[in-house]
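Q: Is it fine to ask for two folds in a single conversation?
A: Yes, each is treated on its own. Send the first.
Q: Here.
A: Result:
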Amino acid sequence: MATHRCDTAVVGGGIVGLAHALAAAKRGDRVVVFERDDRSVGASIRNFGMIWAVGQQRGAMYERALRSREIWLEVAAKTGLWAAPTGSLHLAHHPDEAAVLEEFVATTPAARERGTEMLSAREAVARSRAAHPDGLLAAMWSPTELNVDPRHAIPAVAAHLAEEYGVDVRFGTTVRGIGMPTVSTTAGDWRVDRVFVCSGNDFETLYPEVFAASGLVRCKLQMLRTGVQPGGWQLGPMLCGGLTLLHYAAFEELAARAALDARMRAELPFHRDNGIHVLLSQTADGRLTIGDSHAYATTHDPFESEEINAAIMEYLAGFARLPDTGITERWSGFYPSLRDGRTELVVDPEPGVTVVNGVGGAGMTLSFGLAEENVAAR
């Protein structure tokens, strides 16, 4: 086969790979993307579509999330991609939940400067028709969260790369191996200057020794989706409850978190053992996305637990009221995760090659900003 030529090759057509392709193309590189599947079918389409800045670790990660949000809006403006600036509401139905939220607002000036604030129960219900008023004490409003529909957003970003920047996006193309400056694929050999390996859940095929030493494990999650809500009903702000305060890094160092954790472990041991926290978002056509659970292992069984799904729905009913909770879809997702406090795996296994993985469940939120940083550094 003939050898093709480009400046930058990206392995992986999920959000991490597409983000690196966009950053390289903006720099002026000739870019090719290789995705072995006929379309993106992994974690990048099996999520809430939440660009969730408020949950990210305070400081550099929060700023990276906000930069990613800006890029999502830039892409949406150019393509017509649905990207709704809904913001988010963290609902507090217990005093310890309100205490965590109040401490977060008081100690996070970067969030306050962008409009994050505490609301009374009455103000929260006025802002969200879905917020359950019974026992509601307070809520935290954050305006920075953005909602996209991942099943449409990922193909739209891929099409944008091809149309706006001339990126050669090759779905159904497997990378057999890399020996710089050559990338060997089922579509021939490519001579390149730079490769970004963004292979997501497949972290054994290319540079397996890097991943063996990385500490990566797979996270398995369970999610659900309702049908279209009746009468054009709109969720408004994306919602979550107290369990979410135990999931995201933004709240980890807060003093009030310990009391909340102790209560949740006593009252909801099944939820804590299965990594359940509950988020609620809506698609452009009115469906509600609900989840999720988190289990970490090198290899997972392929089966879903109805007990987990029931626990998710039961907890949701405690903080949200919905017109129609009938479930039309259930699925599992899998993504690589680092369990040692690192926020991503970025390694250069040989000159000209950068492996990018391990962004956990924050790929939609962080990838565009991370990609800009990685491309600028190389």
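Q: Second one now.
A: Result:
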Amino acid sequence: MVRAKDYRHGLERDSRGRWTVDAVKQVSYDVLVRRDLLKVDDPFLADALRGCVAGAGNSSDRRLLIVDKVVDTLYGPAIDAYFIAHGFTTAKLVLDAHEQVKNWGSVDAVLAAMDQFGVDRRREPVIAIGGGVLCDVVGFAASIYRRGTPYVRIPTTLIGLVDAGVGVKTGVNHRAGKNRIGTYAQPLLSLLDTRFLSSLAVRHISNGMAEILKVALVKSRPLFEHVERASRGDLRVLFEDDQHARLADYVIEESIHLMLEELQPNLWEGTLERCVDYGHTFSPTIEMHAVAELLHGEAVAIDIALTTGIALERGLLSEPDAVRVLDVIAGLGLAPWNDVLARQGLLTEALEDTVRHRDGFQRLPLTDGIGTHVFVNDVTPAQIAAGAAFVESYVSSLAPWQESVA
């Protein structure tokens, strides 16, 4: 086929009058770790917020802040004092942000606040300060407002720091679908401050540790061993006690590094075999069927337990290692089992939905020993049932612990 090419613009037109548009979008964003971002006499945050839009033309010090309701209760005065001290003019939307309200209504509230504030399309990035749900909601709203408005993420939960705060996916739940509507939209900047973790309830520490365990099991035996060590201690002091600072810093920074190592070459998921989807094959359906009782990481932990049982059934994992994985899950304060797993056909339905999401194949990552993985496309209902039976048997042997966390 003969094509005439306009070399000035790189646009091609063939002999039948068809144009071929070939364009590349450059993506670049920074993920920065810094303790005490809200320390008033430290200009780091202010400089970062101004510097990330330095090339956008005339400067502006107006910022719209979208802040999680719980975060505002704990840190609202400190947030306000910092932005005032550093010369910003701000408006603030305080948003209730958790899985049960991760929906279009929350997105619409953010869009309305952006419109009322009159956010400049390029010079006034919206600032999201909160957990993973808030970061997802604000990122989605920013990505569709005027077809793309810049935003900055300051995650305040462990799961936000190691998962929602570092990638480019945004989204909200729709009907019965987990993150069924969303976009790929990178922030200008993600600012990670581990100081926020000292105010987290232990349940939310456990919730984030599930995502760290996920990446450890498929990518790093040393990280798994550090998580295992943490699971044998008191999670309530992991991010408070200086004695545990080295362990805490390692598990956070290594998990972020491993996540970004996987995400960077495949940001838009052109390749659907993603080892970071480990723990996310059955969990979206499990989570949406028990949304009132399970946090995201808790659903992921159940998926990890189930797929550990499947890996055992397929001979990819020894029984001692499979039990070891479930011991770590339990030690992190996470339940390996939820009664929703016993619902007739639920797990088969979950896998079928995942197959649709992964373009007609299971592409199911399983641990091949601790710290490595394989992808499989032939998991059977019998293997799923065997995996579930293994987990149920394990949990039944821990009846006293099971009652203590009920």
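Q: Anything structural to flag on that second result?
A: Two points. Confidence is low (pLDDT under 50) at residues 401-406. The first helix runs from residue 44 to 51.
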